[in-house]
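Posting this for the archive.
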Amino acid sequence: MRKCPNCNRQIDDSCAFCEYCGYKIKKTRWLWIVLPAVVVLAVVGVVIGVVINNKQKQLSLDRQEESLYKNCQSAADFRHFLSVYPDGQYAAMAKNKVEELKLDSIRQQLDDRAAERNAYDNCTSQRDCKAYLEKYPSGEYVSQVQQLLGRLQQDSLNQLQMQYEEVYFEGVAYNEPIAKSQYEQLLDFGWRYNVLSENALYSLTPRELTYLRNSVYARHGYVFKSNELNQYFKQFGWYHPDPSVTSAVLNETEQANVTLINTYQKDYGKEYKPM
């Protein structure tokens, strides 16, 4: 129900004229007012939704870019980042990192070459040569060091051969055949009077080094706790077991030779424990 604008009486909503006074009733066209407003609101909502969605997508992309950048560790990582985000917000910093790492790599290469050169210049013994070859197996001076090592080894053998032509033990001189192996020559080394060179030990096995070190005691008749050592030295005519002999029987030169062999075994991992 609604009121007639002319007579102010209640009339039906569907009436086109007032049934009391005949006044023509104008229909309110509210739909033409509401519909455009609804359309406008809908368009605004769509635009706002698109803007929010684009911002969320951009935020997600920014986070992905940031995560990839923070995970870069090497120059290759930063170059990969630049291939994915050439114009990204971290592109400039990534380019700087590539240049910094390139310079660091060049400096490291120069330091490595200087260290290798220094190691090569300090190769004056077989130990130095072997240390260089172990650290720089593909180094710039490998062939020179190998040649130097060969010369040092040959010089060591020549020195031993000359030294053992006449070996002194307890003041008695006797001739030895030069054809003996290096280990056999060292067994007859004049331990009491001669100081051993470390270069003479390189070709010996861990067992030979242990036997050689204990032969210094065996020359005095020392009885070992190891059955293996006692049985080994019994084959030599100069070994006369004497239970009264102690390790204190060695003189200063003999003790120095024993210490040299023992230290060499520990340094080069050539220790052997007899049974």
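The radius of gyration is 49 Å. Confidence is low (pLDDT under 50) at residues 164-179.
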